[in-house]
Amino acid sequence: IWQKELEMGKSKTVLPQNSTDRMLFTFMIVGIPFAAVWLGCVVLPHYHDTINTTVVLHITAAAFIFYNIFHNILLVIRTDASGRTSYLPSVLKPGWRYCAICQVNYPPRSYHCHICDECILKRDHHCKFTGKAKK
Q1: How far apart are CA 135 and CA 13, in angstroms?
Q2: Structure confidence by residue, pLDDT tens digits, 101-114
Q3: 67, HSE (Cβ side, Cα atoms, 13 Å)
Q4: Between 11 and 94, where is the model more confident?
Q5: What pLDDT is recorded for position 124?
Q6: How far apart are CA 76 and CA 131, in angstroms?
Q7: pLDDT value at residue 1
Q8: Lowest-pLDDT range, 42-51, 59-68, 88-97, 124-133?
Q9: Residue among 68, 77, 80 nearest 131 (CA)
């Protein structure tokens, strides 16, 4: 299953390799659940004595945001934005460009990153909080 994910553009490692990246990643993984527990155990009981519609809506919204944060962090960590593992077309499609450095056709909203020395999809792929900084 890992080989199939690697072929589909998913990286195998989840934990960052650099110590600074690990520290920031740990801060995110520990800090966000701590904030959720603090909200549920300290803030909500202080302002609301009973469970009513407002409390339920507040907890539902917090759970939705909590899920989205972790799901998006996991997707950023596991998705490879480069074209090296993708099956790029050999014929130039409309809107696509050719990179003379990588010698591949790359899609719109992509560019050649001179730090990675490869073509990547346009997004912040050097994020320290998700452990995707330059290795």
Answers
A1: 13
A2: 877 788 787 878 87
A3: 6
A4: 94
A5: 61
A6: 9
A7: 40
A8: 124-133
A9: 77
Cα-Cα-Cα-Cα torsion 54, 57, 61, 64, nearest 10 degrees, comes to 160
The answer to whether residues 107 and 121 touch, using CB atoms and an 8 Å cutoff, is: yes
What's the pLDDT score for residue 2? 41
- SS3 of the chain: the string is CHHHHHHCCECCCCCCCCHHHHHHHHHHHHHHHHHHHHHHHHHHHHHCCCCCHHHHHHHHHHHHHHHHHHHHHHHHHHECCECCCCCCCCCCCCCCEEECCCCEEECCCEEEECCCCEEEECCCCCCCCCCCCCC
- The pair of structure tokens assigned to 112 is 């050649």
Helical axes 53-78 vs 19-38, angle rounded to 10°: 170
With a threshold of 0.70, does the pTM exceed it?
A: no
